[in-house]
């Protein structure tokens, strides 16, 4: 019976985390960083305020929890695309589209993260681009793999895949910041197509040359 109790506890904890995620995400998307409070999170998730503090010390931790969950969903999308067995150019297009639309979809969460990191610079080392906690780490690895495969099989011209991935990541992070602070209000589907066009036409072999 103790084993069953442990299983029940694990299921309950998973359900609570899911409820907290959905509640925090809805608050951030509707009201942003300023609208998120621990009390409001508890009410929206249908739990006691003390329960929220069992999981998070403050709302900064809540924001990074949501960001991590979003990153995990993005990683699953990357894996689903990889499993399609597309050629490198088609796979990269699908990956870029997924990333751009995902960044736009969660722009208010990104805005909250920008706010948190700007107000607490010490968090940058824990959650910044070089950190193992960075939510885009596995998505970046997916981009790097398809770039490397494309160079090796000749679909893309010869270049340093790591450096190219850094450049693509820079474009995506800039888009995320612009979406997040409301400085870029373009149609995300159109922006996605433009990013794909920009990247693909920069790395496909030039006509009449192998370079």
Order of helices and strands: HHHHHHHHHH
Helical element count?
Answer: 10
Count of structural domains? 2
Which assembly state applies to the chains in this document?
single chain
The CATH superfamily of the largest domain is identified as Tetracycline Repressor, domain 2
Q: Unreliable stretches, pLDDT < 50, 5 or more residues?
A: none
CATH architecture of the largest domain, please? Orthogonal Bundle
Number of strands: 0
Percent of residues in helices comes to over 70%
For the record, what CATH class of the largest domain applies? Answer: Mainly Alpha
Shape: elongated
**What name does CATH use for the topology of the largest domain?**
Tetracycline Repressor, domain 2
Which class do the helix and strand fractions yield?
mainly alpha
- Biggest beta-sheet profile: none
Arithmetic mean of pLDDT: 85
The Rg value, from CA coordinates, equals 20 Å
Strand content bin: under 5%
User: What separation lies between the terminal Cα atoms?
Assistant: 67 Å
Task: Tell me what you see in this structure.
With 211 residues, this protein is mostly helical. It has two domains: 1-56, Homeodomain-like (Arc Repressor Mutant, subunit A, Orthogonal Bundle); 60-203, Orthogonal Bundle (Tetracycline Repressor, domain 2). Helices cover 76% and strands 0% of the residues. The protein has ten helices and no strands. α1 (2-35) crosses α2 (38-45), α2 packs across α3 and α4 runs parallel beside α8. The longest helix is centred in the N-terminal third of the chain and has 34 residues, at 2-35. The radius of gyration is 20 Å and the shape is elongated. The relative contact order is 0.10. The model has no long low-confidence stretch (mean pLDDT 85).
